[in-house]
Amino acid sequence: MRHGQTDWNVEHRSQGWNDIPLNDVGIEQAKSSAIKLKDIAIETIYSSDLKRAKKTADIISATLDLPIHYTKRLREMNFGKAEGIKKTDLPAKFPHIYMAFNDLLNPERYDVRYPSGESIGEVQQRFMKLITKLYEDGRKNVLIISHGMLIRIFCEICLKKTIRLENASVLKVVFDEKSKKFKSPKIII
């Protein structure tokens, strides 16, 4: 699940590790999603420790009466010096990085980073460490609340699809024990 809306989402700014809270719309989105999740079998919630994801998780948890585990591994990508900048201004401020970062056919894009930020490969590694731990712990029906770019990276690498979730949307995926791969992605909210 992607967290609810923030003012920076509305302004199309790169948030990264900036700890921007949900706005009023984001709070309402989280409440609406919580109600829609009532009939889904969820045993626990894992959430990014940033305010926007934590608040979303708190709302879902209170509605569904589920435990929450907060972790830095689910944080948004650290965009470094690109954080706070409007996304339309990124190509002018960081032309080579922006182009390489968004070229889906460029294998080197996994190592590209904005100054003082993280690479796609680093985000993938920290996220997959959490997924591996959940698998080893026998967790089955987990709601993960995170951020747009982390979810996009997961989809591109693990599902071989480009999926961009709207705020407070939920993507359901299944882990196939036999193939050890994620499959059947479906946006359910």
Descriptive tags:
single chain; 7 helices; 5 strands; alpha/beta; two-stranded antiparallel sheet; three-stranded parallel sheet; Rossmann fold; 189 residues
Question: Could you explain the architecture of this structure?
Answer:
The chain has 189 residues and is of the alpha/beta class. It has a single domain, classed as Rossmann fold (3-Layer(aba) Sandwich), CATH 3.40.50. Helix content is 38%, strand content 14%. It contains seven helices and five strands. The chain has a three-stranded parallel beta sheet with strand order 2-1-3, covered by helices on one side. Strands 4-5 form a two-stranded antiparallel ribbon. Helix 2 (24-36) runs parallel beside helix 3 (51-64). The longest helix is centred in the last third of the chain and has 17 residues, at 120-136.
Write the layout of secondary structure elements.
Elements: H1 7-10, H2 24-36, E1 44-48, H3 51-64, E2 68-71, H4 90-93, H5 95-102, H6 120-136, E3 142-145, H7 148-159, E4 171-176, E5 181-187
Parallel strand pairs: 1-2, 1-3
Antiparallel strand pairs: 4-5
Lateral arrangement of strands in the main beta sheet: 2-1-3
The figure for the number of domains is 1
Radius of gyration: 16 Å
Give helix % range.
25-40%
The CATH architecture comes to 3-Layer(aba) Sandwich
Characterize the largest beta sheet: strand count, sense, and whether it forms a barrel. Answer: 3 strands, parallel
CA-based shape: globular
Q: What is the CATH class designation?
A: Alpha Beta
**Which structural class fits the helix and strand makeup?**
alpha/beta
pLDDT averaged over residues: 96
Q: State the separation between the terminal residues, measured CA to CA.
A: 9 Å
Strands, count: 5
What is the fold-level CATH name, i.e. the topology?
Rossmann fold
Number of helices: 7
Task: Provide the CATH superfamily.
Answer: Phosphoglycerate mutase-like
